[in-house]
Amino acid sequence: MEQQIRIILKSLGEDPSREGLLKTPSLVAESLRFLTSGNDMAPGAVVQGGVFPSPTTGIVAQKNTEFYSLCEHHLLPFFGQIHVAYKPNGKIIGLGDIAKLIDVFSRRLQLQEHLTDQIADAFVDVLQPKGVFVVVSARHFCMMMRGTQKQGSQVMTQAARGDFAKNAEERQEAMRLLGL
């Protein structure tokens, strides 16, 4: 990968042997490996031991979980907050494990729309809840730095499964708990 990054630097008109760029190929390679480390993670494996039996029946909501990802079209960052609400069905998940599930999918080359669906589907697979509702709010550097150059734009996506997909009142309650 480092050799390819040197080639990219040269094609940008840079000299990869100049002092400021000497470590760039290895630093970029290390950074890209970390930012795409979700490719090597399986949702069930990252929450192993973090799912617990519980008689809880009310909605569990966690909001404002930060995330960072890379747009698969431009390899530019997008970042923001993910809000998750779910209705347990005999099991709950550790709060830190919600963040781990988010990392599995955000640390990949990604589209926000897919990220939202993948997180919702992972909750269904791992917990089999009565319902799950996921909202992602993000800012995209591909919109801010290039293209339309709209710095204040924010993209919102949502995915609903189970009771939240079937019942508008349930979905409204989840949105109220999440402050949306």
3D structure, described in words:
- The structure is a single chain.
- Helix content is 41%, strand content 27%.
- The strands form 2 sheets. The protein has a 5-stranded mixed sheet, with helices on both faces. Strands 1-4 form a two-stranded antiparallel ribbon.
- A hairpin with a 5-residue loop joins strand 2 and strand 3.
- Helix 1 packs across helix 2 and helix 4 packs across helix 5.
- It is elongated, with a radius of gyration of 19 Å.
List keywords for this structure.
single chain; 180 residues; alpha+beta; GTP Cyclohydrolase I, domain 2; 2 domains; five-stranded mixed sheet; two-stranded antiparallel sheet; 7 strands; 41% helix; elongated
How far apart the termini lie comes to 42 Å
**Helix segment count?**
8
Biggest β-sheet strands, sense, barrel = 5 strands, mixed
Mean pLDDT comes to 95
Structural class by sheet pairing and helices: alpha+beta
Strand order of the largest sheet: 5-2-3-6-7
The name of the CATH superfamily of the largest domain reads GTP cyclohydrolase I, C-terminal domain/NADPH-dependent 7-cyano-7-deazaguanine reductase, N-terminal domain
Please give the number of β-strands.
7
